[in-house]
C-alpha cells in the first residue's frame, strides 16, 4: 500500500540516538498512557447519480475493525459523521489523491475516504503522510478483514511499514536498514524494536499458514541472513495474515498523538470518559461519546446535546447515570450532516462471559429524546452478555424507537436473575415528532430475558396520523421474557396498595399494543389498553403466558374499512392463563369487536376464567381446538355481561364452558360448525355424561346447532336464592348452591387450580363454613394443595372445617393437619374442637396434640403462627417462610404475652423469659435475624439447624429491607443475590420463601432445574389470583438406603393402578436416570445406576403431569 512520509516529531526524534542499540530509559518508559480519542470522519464516494459506493454494513465492519485493532493500545475513535460524496470524478483512480486537498477533508479529524472498486482484487490505500489527517482506502469483495483500513490509519498516527529502509524493498534509503538481528532497531527501519526486521514484500517467504521461510541468499547490510519476520503485523505487506499492532507500535502512535502538531486538531479526548465524572453543566458533542470500562459518567441537571447520527457508547462494566433533571437530546445544527432530526442513541456493550459485568444505564427523573434508538444493544455474538437498564420516573420522548434490545441468539444464564427494569417510565411520541419521520415503536425485544415494565405509560399521540412502520407496537417480543404490570410504591403489598400509590401501566395509540412470539413465561398483569386499531395483545407460539386483571377498552369506532379488532389473541400457545380481564366496547353503534380469540391451543394446561366481556359482537371465539389435548372439561370460564353471542368457527371438537352471569342468547349458526355434536344435560351427579355448557345463572334460550327442528330449548338456571347449604347468601346476591357448584366442579376438574372457586366460597369472612366432603372426593393432589392454599390465605376457618380436615389422615400427613389447625387458633376457643382433638380416632401424635391444646385461647392467629414457627425448629426453611408470612401480614408481633407464658412452660426447649423480653422490648420488626439468634432453645436443641435458621432469617431480613427502604431487589450487591439464590436451591421451604417474594413483587423465577421450569411456570399461571406459588403436592415420601444405593418410594395415599415415570435430574437440569414405578403399591423400590455422589432432583410423573419433586442426596 502506498504512502507519503512526514517528519518524526522532535520529542520523539530526540530519543533516536545514532549508533545506539537501545533507547534511553526516559523514552519508552515514559510513553503517555492515554487514553487518546481520535475524531473520525468517514466519507463514502459514489457516482454523481448516487450509484455505487459501500453499504452501511461495510461501514459497520470498518468501525468494528478499527475499534478492535486500536483499543488494546488505548486509542479510540469518535465518529463525527458519515458523509456521502456524490461525484464520479473521485471514482477514477487517477483522482483519488485529490480527495486529500478537497473541500470534503475536515481539518479537525482524520478523514477516511472509502471507495468501492467492484471486481478488483483485494483492497489498497494511501495515507497523506506519516503522520496525516487524511487517507483513502479502496475496498472490494476480496478484502475480507479490512486490515487495509487499520494499516492506513496506522500511517496517519505515525507508523511506517515494517520493511522501511530495507535494501530489498522499494523503500530503501528512506531510513537506515534494520539489521537482521535487530541490533539497531531503535535507529533504523521502522524505529520500533518489537517488530522483527522485515526484508520486504515480494520475496516469497510467506507461507499459506502465515509462517515465514527466509528466502535463500537474502542478506542484510551486515551480510547476515534474515531468520524471522512477523507476517501478522498490520504494518507489513503480508496482506492475508495481518492481525495486530505490537505494544511498542502502540507506544509510537501515542507519542505522535501526544506531541505531533499535525495530530493535535484530531484529538477529542473529552469524548472518552476514563475516570469517574459528574457533569452538572450543559455540553455539546459533534462526535461519539464513550464511557470506558469500569468508569461512571453521572449527569445531574444538565443537558447533553448530540450531533445527528452520533451515539453514546457505554462499555462493559461502565455506568451511565442520568439523574434528576438530566436530558440527552439532538442538536440538528451540529456535525457534518446538519438538519437530521435524530441522534443515534445509547449503545450498551456486554461482557464476554458471565463473569464480566455488562454496561449499566440508570435513568432517574431524566429525559432521553429524539434518538433513532434511545437505548440499544449492538449485534454481538451469542457468547456475549448484554447491557442492563434501570429507569425510574424517566421519560423517553419522540424517539424513533425507545428500546431496541435485540440479541443475535439466546442470552447467558446471568440474565435469568439480573433483569432490566422500567419503573413508572413514560414512553411518548407527541406533536413535536419530526414531520415525515417513521415511528417504529417503543420497545423491540429479541432473545432477551427479564425485561420488566412496571407502572409505565406507552402513549402514541400520533395515533390519528398513522406514522407507523410494520413494527408499530408498544412492545414487540421475539423469544424474550418480559413482564408488563402495574406498580405500587415500595413498602406496600400490591393487594393493599393505597390508591394514591398505585400506577397501572397504560398503553394507547398502536396498531397492536403488545405482540409476543415464543415469549415463554411472560406476564401481562393489571394494565390499561385503549386506542388500538388491530389488537390489544397478540401472543403466538408461547408457553406459560399470564394475562390477568387487564382492562381493554374499544373506546372509539374503527376507521372505515378497518379490519375487525380483537382484544386478546392467543395463537398456538400452551399453558396460558387468561383471567380477571375486563374487555368492553363503549360506543353505541353495532360493535364489530371480538374480546378473546384462541387459536390452535395445545396441551391441557390452558385456562381462561372470570373475564368480563361487555358490549362486544363476539365475546370469545376459539378455532382449531382439539378438546382432548387443548382444554380439560370446563377448561374455559367467562363472566359474560351483555354478550350477544358465542361462536366457535372451525373448531375441532367441542369446547366446554362455564358461564356465570347474564347471557342474552346463543345463535345456533355460530355456536357449532357442521359435523360437531353439542349436547347439554344437567343430569344427576355421577352420570356418565360429557358436559359441554354449564349455566350457573338463568339463560333465556339457545339453539341446538345440529338439531333437526332448529327450535329453541329452554334451560333452567341453578337456584340463586339462599339455601341450607349456603346460609350466608342473601336474597339480593347471586349465590349458587354450594353443593351443586361443588359437584359440577369435581366432575369436570380435579386439578388444584380448579378448586379455587370452592374454597373462595367456603371462606366467608370467618363466620361460617360449609361442608367439605366433596373436596375430599377429589384427587389426592387436589385436596392436599387445597389445604395448602387454605392454610396460606386464611386463619379464620371454622371449627367444622378444621375437624373435617383433621379427620382425614388418609389424605393429609400429621404435619399438614397440625399446620392447618395451628394457623387458625381462634377456632381452638371452641370446646368442640378441643374435645375433637383429644378424642378423634384419627388423632395426631401426642406431642402435636399437646402443642395444639396449649395454644392460648386468647392468642391471635398471627401470634399463634409465631408459636407454630417455633414448633418447626427442625425445619428452618419452613420457619423462615412463616416469618415472612408474619412480616408481610404487618402484624405488630408485640402482643406476645401468651406466647411468653407458653414458652415459659416449655423448659424442654430451653426458652427463657429474659431472652424473649429482651427481643420484644425492641422495635418488633427491627431485626428478624436478631430474633433468630435470641432463640437459645433452638441452638441447644440442634446447633446445625439453629445456624441454618439464623441464616435463613438473614435472607428474609434482606428481602424485607429491600422492600421497606425502597431499593430495587436487583440493586442488592452480588453477595446478597448469591445468598438468596443459594438458599432457594438448597431447601424446599426456603425456596418457597424466596420464590414467593420474587414472584409476588418482581414476577421472576429463581434458578430451578430446566426440567421443572415449565411446570413451575404453569403453576405460577394457575395461582395468580392468590399471589402464592405452591410447591408440588407431597404425594410421596423417599426413604434412602445409602449402603446399597436403593431408595424406597412410599406413596401417601392410594393411587390408581398406573405406571409412574421416575426421572432423576442433576443440578444443571439434565436427566441422568430414569425408571418406572407402579402407583398402586404402597411402596416401590428404585436403585440408582452408578451415579456420582451429590444432590439431585427426583421427580415422578403420571400421565405427563408432575406428581411431585424432591431434592435428594446420592451417596455411596
CATH first level of the domain at 35-265: which class?
Alpha Beta
What is the total tally of β strands?
55
* Share of helical residues: 10-25%
How is the main sheet built? 23 strands, parallel
Descriptive notes:
The structure is a single chain. This protein is α/β, with parallel strands linked by helices and 1116 residues long. Among the domains are: 35-265, 3-Layer(aba) Sandwich (Collagenase (Catalytic Domain)), CATH 3.40.390; 558-717; 875-1026, no CATH class; 1036-1114, Immunoglobulin-like (Sandwich), CATH 2.60.40.3080. The protein has 25 helices and 55 strands.
Concise summary:
With 1116 residues, the protein is an alpha/beta fold. It is built from 25 helices and 55 strands.
Could you outline the blueprint of secondary structure elements for this entry?
Blueprint: E1 2-3, H1 10-13, H2 25-28, E2 36-46, H3 56-71, E3 75-86, E4 110-116, E5 124-127, E6 134-139, H4 147-156, H5 247-259, E7 272-273, E8 277-279, E9 283-285, E10 289-291, E11 296-299, E12 303-306, E13 311-314, E14 319-322, E15 327-330, E16 345-348, E17 360-364, E18 367-369, E19 373-376, E20 388-392, E21 395-397, E22 401-406, E23 420-423, E24 426-429, E25 439-446, E26 451-454, E27 457-460, E28 468-478, E29 482-485, E30 487-488, E31 502-503, E32 505-517, E33 523-525, E34 527-540, E35 546-548, E36 551-554, E37 566-571, E38 577-579, E39 582-585, E40 594-599, E41 607-609, E42 612-614, E43 618-623, H6 627-630, E44 636-638, E45 657-659, H7 668-671, E46 693-695, E47 699-703, E48 712-715, H8 738-748, H9 756-762, H10 773-776, H11 780-793, H12 799-806, H13 814-822, H14 831-839, H15 846-853, H16 861-871, H17 876-888, H18 897-905, H19 913-920, H20 928-934, H21 936-941, H22 943-964, H23 974-986, H24 988-1002, H25 1010-1022, E49 1036-1041, E50 1046-1051, E51 1059-1065, E52 1071-1078, E53 1083-1087, E54 1094-1102, E55 1105-1114
Parallel strand pairs: 1-5, 2-3, 2-4, 4-6, 7-10, 8-11, 9-12, 10-13, 11-14, 12-15, 13-16, 14-17, 15-18, 16-19, 17-20, 18-21, 19-22, 20-23, 21-24, 22-25, 23-26, 24-27, 25-28, 26-29, 27-32, 28-32, 29-33, 32-34, 33-35, 34-36, 34-37, 35-38, 36-39, 37-40, 38-41, 39-42, 40-43, 44-45, 45-46
Antiparallel strand pairs: 5-6, 30-31, 47-48, 49-50, 50-53, 51-52, 51-54, 54-55
Amino acid at each position: 500500500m502506498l504512502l507519503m512520509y512526514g517528519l518524526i516529531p522532535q520529542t520523539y526524534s530526540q530519543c533516536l540516538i545514532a549508533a545506539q542499540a537501545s533507547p534511553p530509559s526516559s523514552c519508552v518508559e515514559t510513553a503517555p498512557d492515554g487514553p487518546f480519542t481520535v475524531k473520525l470522519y468517514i466519507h463514502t464516494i459514489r457516482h454523481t447519480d448516487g450509484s455505487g459506493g459501500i453499504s452501511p454494513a461495510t461501514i459497520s465492519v470498518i468501525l468494528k475493525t478499527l475499534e478492535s485493532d486500536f483499543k488494546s493500545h488505548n486509542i479510540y475513535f469518535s465518529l463525527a459523521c458519515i458523509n456521502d460524496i456524490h461525484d464520479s470524478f473521485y471514482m477514477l483512480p487517477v483522482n483519488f489523491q485529490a480527495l486529500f486537498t478537497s473541500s470534503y477533508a475536515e481539518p479537525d479529524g482524520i478523514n477516511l475516504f472509502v471507495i468501492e472498486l467492484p471486481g478488483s482484487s483485494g483492497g489498497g490505500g494511501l495515507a497523506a503522510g506519516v503522520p496525516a489527517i487524511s487517507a483513502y482506502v479502496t475496498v472490494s469483495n476480496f478484502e475480507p478483514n479490512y486490515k487495509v483500513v487499520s494499516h492506513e490509519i496506522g500511517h496517519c498516527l505515525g507508523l511506517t511499514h515494517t520493511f522501511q529502509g530495507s535494501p530489498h524493498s522499494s523503500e530503501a534509503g528512506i531510513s537506515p536498514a534494520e539489521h537482521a538481528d535487530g541490533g539497531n532497531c531503535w535507529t533504523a527501519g521502522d524505529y520500533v524494536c518489537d517488530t522483527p526486521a522485515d526484508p520486504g514484500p515480494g520475496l516469497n517467504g510467506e507461507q499459506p499458514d502465515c509462517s515465514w521461510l527466509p528466502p535463500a541468499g537474502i542478506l542484510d547490510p551486515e551480510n547476515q541472513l534474515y531468520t524471522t519476520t512477523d507476517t501478522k503485523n498490520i504494518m507489513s505487506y503480508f496482506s492475508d495474515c495481518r492481525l495486530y499492532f505490537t505494544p511498542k507500535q502502540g507506544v509510537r502512535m501515542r507519542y505522535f498523538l501526544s506531541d505531533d502538531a499535525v495530530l493535535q486538531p484530531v484529538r477529542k479526548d473529552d469524548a472518552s470518559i476514563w475516570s469517574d465524572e459528574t457533569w452538572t453543566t450543559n455540553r455539546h458533542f459533534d462526535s461519539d461519546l464513550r464511557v470506558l470500562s469500569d468508569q461512571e459518567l453521572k449527569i445531574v441537571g444538565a443537558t447533553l446535546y448530540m450531533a445527528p447520527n452520533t451515539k453514546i457508547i457505554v462499555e462493559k462494566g461502565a455506568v451511565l447515570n442520568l439523574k434528576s433533571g438530566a436530558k440527552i437530546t439532538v442538536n440538528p445544527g451540529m456535525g457534518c450532516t446538519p438538519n437530521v432530526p435524530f441522534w443515534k442513541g445509547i449503545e450498551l456493550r456486554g461482557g464476554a462471559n458471565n463473569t464480566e459485568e455488562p454496561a449499566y444505564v440508570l435513568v432517574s427523573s431524566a429525559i432521553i429524546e429524539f434518538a433513532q434508538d434511545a437505548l440499544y444493544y449492538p449485534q454481538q455474538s451469542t457468547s456475549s452478555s448484554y447491557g442492563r437498564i434501570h429507569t425510574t420516573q424517566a421519560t423517553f420522548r419522540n424517539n424513533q424507537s425507545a428500546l431496541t434490545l435485540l440479541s443475535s441468539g439466546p442470552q447467558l444464564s446471568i440474565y435469568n436473575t439480573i433483569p432490566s427494569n422500567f419503573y413508572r417510565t413514560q414512553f411518548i411520541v407527541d406533536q413535536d415528532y419530526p414531520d415525515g419521520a417513521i415511528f417504529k415503536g417503543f420497545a423491540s425485544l429479541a432473545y432477551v430475558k427479564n425485561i420488566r415494565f412496571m407502572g409505565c405509560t406507552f402513549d402514541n399521540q400520533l395515533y390519528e396520523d398513522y406514522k407507523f412502520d410494520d413494527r408499530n407496537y408498544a412492545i414487540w417480543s421475539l423469544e424474550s421474557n418480559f413482564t408488563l404490570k402495574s406498580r405500587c410504591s415500595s413498602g406496600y403489598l400490591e393487594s393493599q396498595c393505597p390508591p394514591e400509590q398505585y400506577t397501572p401501566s397504560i398503553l394507547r395509540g398502536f396498531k397492536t399494543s403488545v405482540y409476543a412470539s415464543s415469549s415463554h413465561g411472560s406476564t401481562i398483569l393489571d394494565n390499561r389498553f385503549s386506542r388500538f386499531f388491530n389488537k390489544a395483545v397478540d401472543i403466538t407460539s408461547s408457553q406459560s403466558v399470564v394475562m390477568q386483571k387487564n382492562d381493554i377498552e374499544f373506546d372509539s369506532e374503527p376507521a372505515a374499512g378497518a379490519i375487525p379488532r380483537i382484544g386478546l389473541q392467543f395463537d398456538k400457545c400452551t399453558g396460558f392463563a387468561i383471567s380477571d380481564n375486563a374487555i368492553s366496547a363503549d360506543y353505541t353503534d353495532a360493535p364489530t369487536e371480538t374480546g378473546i380469540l384462541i387459536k390452535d391451543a395445545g396441551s391441557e394446561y390452558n385456562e381462561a376464567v372470570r373475564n368480563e366481556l361487555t358490549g362486544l359482537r363476539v365475546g370469545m371465539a376459539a378455532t382449531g381446538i382439539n378438546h382432548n389435548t387443548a382444554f380439560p372439561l370446563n377448561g374455559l370460564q367467562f363472566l359474560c355481561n351483555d354478550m350477544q353471542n358465542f361462536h366457535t368457527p372451525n373448531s375441532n371438537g367441542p369446547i366446554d364452558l362455564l358461564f356465570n352471569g347474564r347471557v342474552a342468547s346463543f345463535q345456533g349458526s355460530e355456536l357449532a360448525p357442521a359435523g360437531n355434536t353439542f349436547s347439554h344435560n344437567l343430569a344427576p351427579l355421577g352420570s356418565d355424561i360429557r358436559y359441554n355448557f354449564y349455566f350457573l345463572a338463568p339463560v333465556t334460550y339457545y339453539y341446538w346447532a345440529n338439531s333437526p327442528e332448529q327450535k329453541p330449548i329452554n334451560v333452567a338456571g341453578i337456584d340463586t336464592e339462599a339455601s341450607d347449604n349456603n346460609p350466608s347468601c342473601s336474597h339480593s346476591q347471586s349465590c349458587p348452591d354450594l353443593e351443586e357448584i361443588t359437584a359440577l366442579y369435581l366432575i369436570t376438574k380435579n386439578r388444584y387450580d380448579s378448586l379455587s372457586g370452592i374454597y373462595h366460597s367456603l371462606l366467608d369472612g370467618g363466620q361460617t363454613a360449609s361442608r367439605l366432603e366433596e373436596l375430599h372426593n377429589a384427587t389426592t393432589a387436589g385436596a392436599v394443595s387445597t389445604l395448602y392454599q387454605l392454610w396460606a390465605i386464611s386463619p379464620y376457618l371454622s371449627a367444622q372445617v378444621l375437624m373435617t380436615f383433621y379427620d382425614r389422615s388418609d389424605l393429609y400427613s400429621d404435619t399438614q393437619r397440625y399446620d392447618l389447625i395451628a394457623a387458625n387458633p381462634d377456632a381452638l376457643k371452641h370446646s368442640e374442637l378441643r374435645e375433637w382433638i383429644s378424642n378423634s380416632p384419627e388423632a395426631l401424635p401426642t406431642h402435636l396434640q399437646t402443642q395444639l391444646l396449649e395454644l392460648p385461647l386468647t392468642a391471635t392467629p398471627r401470634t399463634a403462627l409465631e408459636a407454630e414457627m417455633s414448633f418447626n425448629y427442625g425445619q428452618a426453611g419452613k420457619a423462615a417462610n412463616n416469618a415472612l408470612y408474619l412480616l408481610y401480614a404487618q402484624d405488630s408481633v408485640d402482643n406476645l404475652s401468651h406466647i411468653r407464658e407458653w414458652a415459659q412452660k416449655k423448659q424442654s426447649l430451653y426458652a427463657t423469659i429474659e431472652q424473649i423480653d429482651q427481643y420484644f422490648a425492641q422495635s418488633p420488626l427491627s431485626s428478624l435475624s436478631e430474633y433468630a439468634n435470641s432463640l437459645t432453645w433452638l441452638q441447644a436443641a440442634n446447633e446445625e439447624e439453629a445456624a441454618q435458621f439464623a441464616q435463613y432469617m438473614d435472607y428474609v431480613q434482606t428481602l424485607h429491607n429491600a422492600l421497606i427502604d425502597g431499593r430495587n431487589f436487583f440493586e442488592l450487591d452480588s453477595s446478597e443475590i448469591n445468598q438468596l439464590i443459594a438458599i432457594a436451591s438448597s431447601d424446599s421451604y426456603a425456596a418457597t420463601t424466596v420464590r414467593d417474594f420474587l414472584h409476588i413483587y418482581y414476577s421472576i423465577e429463581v434458578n430451578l432445574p430446566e426440567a421443572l421450569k415449565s411446570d413451575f411456570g404453569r403453576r405460577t399461571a394457575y395461582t395468580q389470583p392468590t399471589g402464592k406459588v405452591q410447591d408440588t403436592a407431597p404425594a410421596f415420601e423417599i426413604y434412602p438406603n445409602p449402603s446399597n444405593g436403593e431408595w424406597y418410594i412410599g406413596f401417601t395415599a392410594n393411587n390408581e393402578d398406573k405406571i409412574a415415570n421416575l426421572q432423576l435430574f442433576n443440578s444443571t437440569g439434565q436427566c441422568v436416570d430414569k425408571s418406572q414405578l407402579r402407583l398402586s403399591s404402597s411402596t416401590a423400590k428404585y436403585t440408582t445406576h452408578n451415579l456420582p455422589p451429590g444432590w439431585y432432583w427426583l421427580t415422578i410423573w403420571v400421565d405427563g403431569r408432575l406428581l411431585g419433586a424432591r431434592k435428594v442426596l446420592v451417596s455411596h
